[in-house]
Amino acid sequence: MVVGKPLLTVEQISKRVSELAGMISADYEGKDLLAIGILKGAFVFFSDLVRYIQTPLSIDFLIASSYLNDESTGEVRIHYDIREEIAGKNVLLVEDIVDTGITLNYLRERILRQGPESLRICTFLDKKERRKVDVPLDYVGFEIPDEFVVGYGLDYDNKFRNLPYISAFRKRT
Ligand code: IMP
Ligand code: MG
Q1: How many domains does one find in the chain?
Q2: Which residue's CA is the closest to the ligand 1 atom numbered 9?
Q3: pTM beyond 0.85
Q4: Are 48 and 42 in contact (CB under 8 A)?
Q5: Annotated catalytic residue: which of 48, 96, 99, 126?
Q6: Alpha-carbon distance 17 to 142, whole Å?
Q7: Is 126 annotated in the active site?
Q8: pLDDT averaged per 10 residues, the chain (length 173)
Q9: Which CATH number do you get for residue 84?
Q10: Is residue 65 exposed (0-12), middle (13-18) or buried (19+ Cβ within 10 Å)?
Q11: Domain range holding 162?
């Protein structure tokens, strides 16, 4: 298994995360925000992002999976659910990467059924070429080509999440 040079460096990431947080802070000025991190992948991005957001916020998490190694199963399972009340809140869903869009589309519709005041989506990475289901993305860190990447929370087989940068990943055959 090969983890190559950074595709996105620590410096590029932290600059972009603070830019995203700036946009979010401006858009939610005077409003309360409920930021929901989609685990496990978003745990690093989420914790960096919320530390740069200036508006008051509450946090919650959910654990969802639609992936088995690097193959999408196309089916979303919730292993741990949101505990905060959604109705009437300004919800910001925070994801690590949007690939086919199946996970986010499922989660988005599920949250919308609970009657939030508003719902926006922030993703660190967007692999646009791979989209199967159209999901509206409000804040995107970086668009990346169709390559499997690891680091900054993203994994292969639950490994490499602790790399501080994003790297392309190839299986050696
Ligand atoms: P989607 O439902 O196909 O959009 O898949 C989204 C989920 O797949 C993400 O939250 C990741 O957990 C995982 N995923 C998609 N692409 C990658 C990748 O390149 N590296 C690591 N995980 C990925
Ligand atoms: Mg994920």
Answers
A1: 1
A2: 97
A3: yes
A4: no
A5: 99
A6: 10
A7: no
A8: 82 98 97 97 98 97 77 79 97 97 95 98 97 96 96 96 94 65
A9: 3.40.50.2020
A10: middle
A11: 2-170
